[in-house]
Amino acid sequence: MIAEVATVISVVKGLNDAISTIKESKGHAGDLASIMGRYATANEAVQEVESKYVGRLSVKDSMQIQLAKRQLKAFNQQLKDSMMMQGLTKDYNEIMARVEESRLEHEKQIKIAKIRRRENIKFLKTMGVALTSAVISFGVILGLIMLIFKK
């Protein structure tokens, strides 16, 4: 789990380098495609860690993921500004529409995973109570039988 969180942090830090590349290159199409690829990779890494460890992240890991999300948001704003200055607003809007669609689907999957996890925990607790009751009942019945037929 720690390795995945560390991977997310390193990918997001790579985006910071990409921001300086945007500013230096003045947004050549190849550079923007590369940067969008990095952004997509970082976003997918965050989503993967979130979905894989739903409700099981430590406080430290959860904070790191939240900070990575915040950095992704800041990067997105800088990318938007850069692309708008270069007249690529339409391209940016199309790309972000796809990213937003992916994000909404991810949030939906996270909610479903959390619900399933809660249901599984509830089921396991119920099975534990049922099993405990069965063992106790068996012990009581066995004890009564031994008392009745004791010579």
Sequence-ordered SSE layout with sheet pairings:
Elements: H1 2-25, H2 29-52, H3 59-85, H4 89-148
Number of domains: 1
- Say how many strands there are: 0
Number of helices: 4
Strand content: under 5%
Give the termini distance in whole angstroms.
61 Å
What sequence of helices (H) and strands (E) makes up the elements? HHHH
State Rg.
26 Å
> Main β-sheet: number of strands, strand sense, barrel status?
none
Q: Averaged pLDDT, please?
A: 80
Tertiary shape: rod-shaped
Tell me the helix content.
over 70%
Question: Which residues form runs of ≥5 with pLDDT under 50?
Answer: none
| Class from secondary-structure proportions | mainly alpha
What keyword list fits this structure?
mainly alpha, single chain, 4 helices, rod-shaped, 151 residues
